[in-house]
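Practice record 12: protein with EPZ.
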Amino acid sequence: MTKLIVPGKQELRGNVKVAGSKNAAVAILAASVICGKKVFIENIPDITDVGTLLEILQNMGGEVRRRGRNAVEIDTSNVRSSTVSPYDLVKKLRASAYFMGSMLARQGKAEVPVPGGCKLGPRPIDQHLKGFSALGAEVEVEHGLVKLKASRLVGTHIYLDVVSVGATINLMLAASTAEGRTVLENVAKEPEVVDVANFLNAMGASVRGAGTDIIKIKGEPELKEASHSIIPDRIEAGTFLIAGAVSGGQVCLREVIPQHLDAAMAKLREAGVEVSASEDTIWVNGASRVQPADIKTFPYPGFPTDLQPLAMVLLTRAEGTSVVTENIFEGRFNHVDELKRMGANIKVEGRTAVVDGGSSLTGAPVKATDLRAGAALIVAGLSAEGKTVLKGVEHVYRGYEKLEEKLAGLGAEIIFSERDEDLRNAEKN
Ligand code: EPZ
């Protein structure tokens, strides 16, 4: 199994280019089947989630041509099967749920494995299914498959019970070719939702209001060829910002959209970290002492849940106690036990974690349970005393492009190794 050796006491210094957004890319790739023609997508991140989705698209009959590392041409004219497969690949990737909305919009039929819950707690799709049936689809869940069928999709008014990125995007996809008008209320306002809406409109759809509480969609019978460039990944950007602050170094992010990180930058400043931004760069100086700061995660534009594990690492260095409240997922504190193995002093009660700062972390053998927890443990290892050996590094590869190269560019060394003796040596000293 691949493990990662993270030597400690490494200060990050330098520039890093932020990749395209994973969460926009996976939705846009699934949406590409709606037009049934050629689409050209640029600034796509080179990460395993994208690779998996491209494999699924090929398996469905799509033709995929990579144009360099970060661009792809997809022709979905031959996509016929409504069964999204292969099962073992599709199950791995929660974003495969987007094929429900896109295949409904394309041909009124979809069979997609029920997306797995993951380490963040149960992740139901009741809002997705409620919306599909409101649009006129028959919904059946059996043998681990979600089966959707609609002789015709008819626009309607849908009020989401829960602010959900996935449901908002999935229903935008399904409504894009439904007859008449659809109004979606109480929707997610994340930048990734806006990027998907922009891609749909590039294909000739009529989606208005993405990024606000109400999205209005006028169904279009047929969508056309399009090209699109994915927005920068605000969570990768936030990860490197916090890594710079934790390491005590100075990091400059390039090709980022600063306003997508307003909440994160505000919280870093509240914690005493020096952060400044210009039109497409953000600069962080981690030299100052870290102050305690309370964090509550909320839907955008609130503090993003995906940066909560990273922020917690910073707070372990604060001179005082901070309270972290996770309002989005009920099981998103799996990184806490691993941070405690590194010497952090954190107590979890339900959705709240109390972080007693002032502890300098020590390297330890730790395990990543999900993508952002893995990233947080790497950030913690970079500044800890001694070496950290991370298992479950494949989670990190899912959403962070060229991580070792980017960290090397910032002067930090991490070593991926399959060889047990490397790992035994690392664990020894
Ligand atoms: C997206 O997940 C992101 N994933 C997540 O990023 C991100 O943390 C999350 O949005 C933030 O809300 C992708 O975009 C691929 P939700 P998603 O539907 O769409 C509940 C990462 O690390 N809910 O917005 O699955 C749900 O249980 C990942 O990049 C329902 O109750 O999240 C959760 O508590 C992790 N019923 C809340 O809503 C539903 O039908 C928000 O979930 C749908 C969701």
